[in-house]
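Homework help board

Subject: predicted structure for assignment chain

Our instructor gave us this sequence and asked us to write out the predicted structure in C-alpha cell form, then describe one feature. I got the C-alpha cells but I'm not sure how to describe them. Can anyone check?
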Amino acid sequence: MRKFLGKLVRILKLLGICRSRLGIFKSKLEIYRGRLLNISKAIRDLQEVIRRHGEILEKHTVAILELQREIKRLGDRVTALGVRWGIYAEEVSSGVL
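My C-alpha cell output:
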C-alpha cells in the first residue's frame, strides 16, 4: 500500500497538485485503507462462522439420515409383522404394500 501511495504522490506532483492537497488526499486514502482492512477482517470472521455452521449442519444432516434409515427399518419390521399376523394380507395381495 505504501508503494502504491508513493507512486500516486509522484503522479499527483507531476500533475501540479500542491502538497497540502496531497496531504489531505493521502490521509483520506489511509482512512479508506483502514476501512477496507476492517471490512476484510469482518469477511474473514463471517467465513469462519459460516464454516462452523457448515460443520454443525453436516453433523445434523448425518443424524437426520441415520434417523430416516432407522425409521424405514422399523417400518419394514412393522410391515413384516403385520403380514405375518395377517393384518396386512389384503393390502399385500392387492399390491398396496
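Reply (TA_rk): Your C-alpha cells look well-formed. For the description, you could write something like this. Residues 2-94 form one domain. That's the kind of observation they're looking for.
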